[in-house]
Amino acid sequence: MSLEHNDPFVSAAIEKERERQRETLELIASENFVSDDVLEAMGSVMTNKYAEGYAGRRFYGSIKPSSRDFKADLSYMIAAKAVSFKESLQPDFKTYAQNNVDNASVLGETLLEEGASLGGTDNHLLLVDVKAWGLTGKETE
User: Fold this and answer.
1) Sign of torsion over alpha carbons 83, 86, 87, 88
2) Would you say the pTM of this structure is higher than 0.70?
3) CA nearest to 130, candidates 6, 27, 43, 15
4) Domain boundaries, the chain
């Protein structure tokens, strides 16, 4: 049975969010729309696993040999963070970061000058209402 058949409300909410992501523009530096492969993996039997604890010390008998070696995954995450932190300590990173701040300020000022409606936020989100220009987010992208 399909999700639409089993839970029409959740199915409709998912479709509405998918459409919102297609039709609107969100300028978020860390925005990440995952690939279909990631969506498939997240909706696979691998999400049925239940475990507690740290890599190498997982508890619960239903995690069988088909489970991946989570120690390797953790090592890759730690290595990726280490590389990121090392790069952020380089002398030119401060200039790079400042350029991002300056560019964001110019973008915001320019959008305001063009009559854009911008809302405040507590995070690194810029939401621009393009309806006043007769546009959709999809057209703007």
Assistant:
1) positive
2) no
3) 27
4) 91-140
Residue 33 tokens, joined? 């729309």
Q: What is the pLDDT of residues 47-71, one digit of tens each?
A: 555 555 666 665 555 445 444 555 5
Rounded CA-CA distance 22/128 in Å is 15
Token pair of 41, please?
């993996």
**Residue 67: per-residue pLDDT:** 47
Distance from C-alpha of 70 to C-alpha of 62, rounded to nearest angstrom: 15
Q: Give residues with Cβ within 8 angstroms of 33, minimum separation 6.
A: 21
Q: In the structure encoding, which two tokens stand for residue 133, read together?
A: 């220009």
Chain centroid to CA 131: 24
Structure tokens at 53: 């604890």
Alpha-carbon torsion angle 44, 49, 50, 54, nearest 10: -100
Q: Which amino acid is at 53?
A: G
